[in-house]
Design goal:
Blueprint lengths: L1 H4 L2 H19 L2 H27 L3 H4 L1 H25 L2 E4 L5 H12 L2 H14 L21 H17 L1 H4 L3 H17 L9 H24 L3 E4 L8 E2 L2 E2 L6 H17 L18 H25 L1 E2 L2
Parallel strand pairs: 1-5
Antiparallel strand pairs: 1-2, 3-4
Helix pairs in contact: 2-3, 3-7, 3-11, 5-6, 5-12, 5-13, 7-11, 8-10, 10-12, 11-12
Length: about 325
């Protein structure tokens, strides 16, 4: 088992090669349908293997418990954006499996890669020494002062509501709203903050990781049979793959949103901190955990049903 963990990079490379080979050489229907899922899990293995070789510690190899906890929360957090899309109707899915259990399994496995992809890519950038500063820049002012936290949180609520009431005009605000809402909330709950604690290198790495993942999401979506298509009220010009070029800017704050949303989960006690050893993780009481799992599953299944009803293009 240890040998397998330490050779994840090769498992990922083999997965990628088999995936492309099955398409180019055999036009394999199964791989075409599941291309996106296979290619992203292969990417995660490759990135995690590189990180392990660079620093001797990686999410899957050394923090497997945190990684496994992250997967269902990745599904839940992405489904929050799918919930917005029920109103916005900015994207839809086509050529998905017609059998419900296969389609829902595909939803879960694919959405489970969102958080690991961003966080692993950010950790790789850190391991490569990119945008890394020793200690804090004590001379630089924080981007948000504590006295502005209530107005900033209020602005976050407004940014969440505007796309729901006026989706044709304010749909892009979904990709920045949770930054304004959760940065003050997380600080008040745990005294942790990206902006107040001057985590500028991490902010830059997360934004860049979001952009890198965004390019890969769109590039690999373009090769997949089961894929998504966009339908935006405006900003539709100059497409790269299926995404209008301006849309790629949204991946930068989206990564920060994902970080803050999952940090809120960790702070609330419903998942171990993936950035450190989970040994000290204190689970909530059993009744609270049971209730949380029931609510999580209910939300996931309800959203899968609503995606089928509202966002899926029947083929």
């Amino acid at each position: 088992m240890d040998a397998v963990k330490r050779n994840l990079i090769w498992l990922g490379i083999i997965g990628q090669l088999l995936c492309y080979g099955a398409i180019w050489l055999f036009d394999c229907e199964f791989v075409l349908r599941w291309f996106y899922t296979i290619i992203w899990w292969s990417y995660l293995f490759i990135i995690d293997g590189i990180i392990y070789r660079l620093k001797g510690n990686s999410l899957i190899v050394n923090r497997a418990k945190s990684f496994l906890w992250m997967l269902p929360w990745s599904v839940v957090i992405w489904l929050v954006f799918e919930l917005f899309n029920l109103r916005l109707q900015n994207w839809s899915y086509e050529f998905l499996p017609q059998v419900v259990w296969q389609r829902w399994t595909g939803y879960f496995i694919s959405f489970a890669t969102v958080l690991p992809a961003i966080f692993e890519t950010e950790e790789l950038l850190e391991a490569l020494g990119m945008f890394y500063l020793k200690g804090k820049d004590k001379g630089a002012p924080a981007l948000i002062d504590r006295k502005y936290f209530n107005p900033v949180a209020g602005l976050g609520i407004i940014l969440i509501l505007l796309p729901l009431f006026f989706p044709q005009y304010f749909f892009p605000l979904v990709w920045i709203a949770f930054i304004f809402l959760l940065e003050p909330v997380n600080y008040r709950l745990s005294k942790t903050s990206l902006f107040l604690q001057k985590e500028y290198p991490r902010i830059i790495r997360l934004a860049l990781a979001g952009f890198i993942c965004g390019v890969l999401w769109e590039a690999w979506n373009g090769k997949a049979q089961a894929s998504w298509v966009y339908s935006l009220p405006y900003l539709n010009c100059c497409k790269i793959f299926a995404m209008p070029v301006t849309g790629y800017l949204g991946f930068l704050p989206f990564a920060l949103e994902c970080y803050l949303m999952y940090k809120f989960v960790v702070i609330s006690g419903y998942g171990p901190d993936w950035e450190s050893s989970p040994a000290d993780y204190q689970k909530p009481s059993l009744p609270v955990r049971i209730l949380a799992v029931v609510m999580m599953l209910a939300f996931i299944f309800a959203m899968f049903y609503l995606i089928d009803e509202s966002t899926l293009i029947v083929s």
